[in-house]
Write a structure and sequence with these properties.
extended, about 140 residues, 2 strands, 4 helices, mainly alpha
Length: about 140
């Protein structure tokens, strides 16, 4: 592990515990950034960017509030299942954007989208040698 914490004050077990405690925060940031879309903004002015951030955080909180009350379906096959948070966020966004989704059906739509839980799953990362992107693509 790489950290900027002093080595003499924090042992490896303390670092692991800190990392474990922070994991929920990190996954929330990942969902805010990619599922909700906080990695790119439509606005250019600071006030409007701030407004967009608040709107997206409210959307995230709304989605999490809805999914919190959904009972996860029983184990279907070899693995336990969990709700697909990204799909749940998109269903909640669709619900708020249009009047085509019935509020009674909202939880059922989210409950249908599940993912298998695969504990102790490890992938060796592939080294995808990335080359530099030329700026010529902007020239017309």
């Amino acid at each position: 592990m790489i950290t900027n914490l002093p080595r003499d004050e924090f042992g490896i077990m303390q670092l692991k515990e800190i990392y474990r405690m922070r994991w929920g925060i990190e996954t929330s940031f990942r969902e805010l950034k990619y599922s909700i879309g906080l990695n790119a903004f439509h606005a250019k002015k600071r006030d409007f960017i701030e407004q967009e951030m608040y709107a997206r955080m409210i959307m995230y909180n709304f989605s999490m509030l809805i999914t919190e009350h959904i009972e996860v379906p029983k184990q279907k096959g070899k693995h336990m299942t969990q709700l697909n948070i990204t799909a749940a966020i998109h269903v909640c966004m669709s619900y708020l954007k249009s009047d085509k989704i019935d509020p009674a059906e909202l939880e059922k739509l989210i409950a249908r989208r599940t993912l298998p839980v695969r504990p102790d799953r490890h992938y060796k990362r592939k080294n995808r040698g990335r080359s530099a992107v030329s700026l010529n693509y902007r020239i017309m």
